Every structure is written in structure tokens, then in C-alpha cells.
Amino acid sequence: MHELGITQGIIDRAREAALANGGRRVTDLFLTMTPAADFSQESIEMYFEMLAGEDDFFRGAALHFDHKLVAATCLSCSDEFNTDAPQPVCPQCGSLLVQLDPDAPMVVLTDVGIDDAEDDEARSAER
Ligand SMILES: [Zn+2]
């Protein structure tokens, strides 16, 4: 269950990014997953709820998932292609001996939506 550590890492990075930008709260987390991940989007959502559900800094925050293709190489015929499958089949020769790009990230935090209290005050002062 290394998703626990991965999710904790995402939470830590989101918190750092929000604090660095003067945020008081994280409202949205934008994540990109690739088929190199050996876990599902649902398990990240579950661990996020478990780890950050009680955390005021993340209260009500939404996870947004984007899915990216990953480069793969067929070990039988050396064909190179992009795939969204964790265990792809070579489109050239039908081989199952396909290696995903070993450098492909499993899940990346691409953006963080923050609530920054000063903005709120500025907006209410205008009203
Ligand atoms: Zn092949």
C-alpha cells in the first residue's frame, strides 16, 4: 500500500505550494496519472480522504484527475508506442512483452487551487 506514502507526498506538496502563494486553504488539487501507476485513482481519493479529511487546510478540497499516455517499448519487435494501459499489448506484433518507460511518473501534482483570505477581504471591501 505505497499509495499511502504517495498520497501523503501529494498533500505535503500541495500544502507547501499553497503556503508559498499565501494560501490559507487548498480548494483543488490537479493530478496527472499515467498507466505506470500500479494503483487506481480511487485509492488515491480514499487515502486523501483518510489523510486530509480532518485537516482544516484541505477541508472540502476536490481532486481533479487527468490521465496521460506513457511511452512503451515492445521487447519482441522493438516497436515504440504510447499507451494508456498498465499492461499493454504491442500494436505491431501483439506481444505482451512490453516495457513502459521506466522514467514515467506514476502521478504528478500539476496545480493547486488555493483560497487566500486577503482576496476574500478585498472582495468584501468592494461590496
Ligand atoms: Zn511488438
Description:
The protein has three helices and six strands; from the N terminus they run αβαβββββα. With 127 residues, it is of the alpha+beta class. The chain has a domain of 88 residues: hypothetical protein PF0899 fold (2-Layer Sandwich). The strands form two sheets. A three-stranded mixed β-sheet has the order 2-1-6. Helix 2 links the parallel strand 1 and strand 2. Helix 1 crosses helix 2. The longest helix is centred in the first third of the chain and has 18 residues. It is elongated. The relative contact order is 0.24. Bound molecules: zinc ion. The site of zinc ion (ZN) has 8 residues, from loops.
Comma- or semicolon-separated keywords:
single chain; 127 residues; hypothetical protein PF0899 fold; alpha+beta; 28% strand; binds zinc ion; three-stranded antiparallel β-sheet
Topology:
Layout lengths: L2 H18 L4 E9 L7 H12 L9 E6 L2 E5 L5 E4 L14 E3 L6 E9 L1 H10 L1
Parallel strand pairs: 1-2
Antiparallel strand pairs: 1-6, 3-4, 3-5
Helix pairs in contact: 1-2
The chain binds zinc ion.
The site of zinc ion (ZN) has 8 residues, from loops.
Order of helices and strands: HEHEEEEEH
Q: Supply the CATH class of the domain at 3-68 and 105-126.
A: Alpha Beta
Q: Return the CATH topology of the domain at 3-68 and 105-126.
A: hypothetical protein PF0899 fold
With strands numbered from the N-terminus, the spatial order across the biggest sheet is 2-1-6
Regions with pLDDT < 50 over 5+ consecutive residues?
none
Tell me the span between the first and last alpha carbons. 49 Å
What profile does the largest beta sheet have? 3 strands, mixed
Beta-strand fraction estimate: 25-35%
Helix percent band? 25-40%
Bound molecules: zinc ion
Alpha carbon gyration radius: 19 Å
CATH structural architecture of the domain at 3-68 and 105-126 = 2-Layer Sandwich
Shape: elongated
| Arithmetic mean of pLDDT | 92
Q: With helices defined by DSSP (H or I, 4 residues minimum), what is the helix count?
A: 3
Number of strands: 6
Structural class: alpha+beta
